[in-house]
Amino acid sequence: MNDLHATRLNFLAGGTDACTEMERAIGIAQSPACSHAFTRTLFDEARRQVAGSAPQSRLAGLAFTAKDLFDIQGQPTPAGSVVLSHAPAAKADAVAVARLRAAGGVLTGRTNMTEFAFSGVGINPHHGTPANAGDAATPRIPGGSSSGAAVSVATGAAFIGLGSDTGGSIRIPAALNGIVGFKSTARLVPTEGALPLSTTLDTVCAMTRSVRDAITAHEILAARRVTAGTASLGAYRLAVVRNVFFDGIEPAVARAFENALQTLRDAGARIEEIELPELAELQAINATGGFSAAESYAWHRLLLERSGAGYDPRVAQRILRGAAMKAHEYIDLVHARHGWISRVETALSLFDAVLSPTVPITAPAIASVAPGAERDDEFFRINALLLRNPSIINMLDGCAISLPCHAAGELPVGLMLWHAALHDDAVLAVALQAEKALKKQ
Predict the structure, then answer these.
(1) What are the two backbone dihedrals, phi and then psi, of residue 25, each rounded to the nearest 5 degrees?
(2) Where is the Amidase domain positioned along the sequence (predicted)?
(3) Order of strands, edge to edge, in the sheet holding 160-165?
(4) Which of 67, 146, 198, 292 is catalytic?
């Protein structure tokens, strides 16, 4: 499956055009592979727009999708819920949507998501759950909360899946579907027009089919240029953190990760294994509920009073935890995070990027965590495992990218490259070289 860059080169060679690619994308979006991936489609509008698109623009009339929490002018913004399905229509596009359109992208629809973005699993009891693109035989979870965005990219229905990442909501579904997900430093991309989960942790970002497409998407969303360079892997000093990230890891994930490390070493990478004892502090720092619970409750409290029965019970349970946090506990949390970030940045200062499994498990069957109180324990166990690794980088205010690192025919596994805030260009530079090496294995 071609990425955005290869498709644009094919335009120049006369092998295809924007209208042909749009019809291909719409055909896939309407196929069983994308069942439940969209909450609202815009196919007729997309056809009209692509006919007048500028082939010289950066996105050249190619399809992108937007997670259901982004404002689209003239439409309500339900964020995967039913309680906001009849909310007032947005008066303008979210900044991220507007920037992708201005770059020549054509929006084909709103994508399904975990209700209000509060889970890494991707289950939605209102709109159904899109099946993971990595296994045609068994319906598996797509990962969340940007579930439909990931499926749209992994199946070929879109070149860019616009989403958000508060604790891994881009990288988790990217890893489980075998695509690329880049979470930039949060402050680099405006969040205006995106319904919030945590104003402290939310990041607007995207999933793509390659690292070079991830760079293009980030440059558009952040209105900045990435300086990735062309240095070989051997020019970078890389670390592997062995504590916490590997707890509870499945053998298939461990095998894929270790094979990826060996492939990178064979390509010249200098990789040092380290411990990061600061990770042990996170449980105590977040003991009162963390930012997402408190900040989501502040946003949802009145809506819960009016329409709480219409919420996904699992989501409501997590939001309501924020009601118990006291003001001094929130302030303590803010201060504790700042101190923790400083200590971790110091510990990683000698490295260009850190390598970890994106998540420690492969995608379980949807049936094992489907809506139902009898499956709640398993749902919350899987959710905690999926969120654990990527949420560390959100707490760090850092940047991270997930790359597929599994062998052909195996369930998708993600390799996460990450660092602290504003190391985006270095992480992307390493990812370009890592992707090149992994594709040769």
Answers:
(1) -65, -45
(2) 42-428
(3) 38-41, 106-111, 63-67, 160-165, 203-208, 180-183, 399-404, 414-419, 353-357, 237-241, 270-274
(4) 67
Structural contact between residues 193 and 65, judged by C-beta atoms closer than 8 angstroms: no
Whole-number Å distance between alpha carbons of 150 and 181: 9
Q: Is the pTM of this model over 0.70?
A: yes
Catalytic residue (choose from 152, 164, 169, 292)? 169
Q: State the average pLDDT over residues 291-306.
A: 98
183 three-class SS: strand
Query: Tens digits of per-residue pLDDT, 36-71?
Result: 999 999 999 999 999 888 888 999 999 999 999 999
Q: What is the pLDDT of residues 330-380, one digit of tens each?
A: 999 999 999 999 999 999 999 999 999 999 999 999 999 999 999 999 999
439 catalytic per annotation: no
Give residue 441's pLDDT.
72
Annotated catalytic, 184?
A: no
Calpha distance 83→336 (Å, rounded): 35
Flag whether pLDDT at 230 surpasses 90. no
Mean pLDDT taken over the chain: 97
Q: Which of 81, 119, 145, 152 is catalytic?
A: 145
Establish whether 436 is a catalytic residue: no
Decide if pLDDT at 403 tops 80: yes
Contact 130, 151 (CB under 8 A): yes
Is the sign of the CA dihedral 252, 253, 256, 258 positive or negative? negative
* Residue 291 exposed, middle or buried by CB count within 10 Å (0-12, 13-18, 19+): buried
Residue 58, burial from CB neighbour count under 10 angstroms (0-12, 13-18, 19+): middle
Could you give the CA distance from residue 377 to residue 385 in angstroms, rounded to a whole number? 13
Is 57 in a helix, a strand, or coil?
Answer: coil
Q: Give the Cα separation of 407 and 259 in Å (integer).
A: 9
**408 touches 183 (CB < 8 A):** no
Are 173 and 146 within 8 A, CB to CB?
yes
Identity (one letter) of the amino acid at 136? A
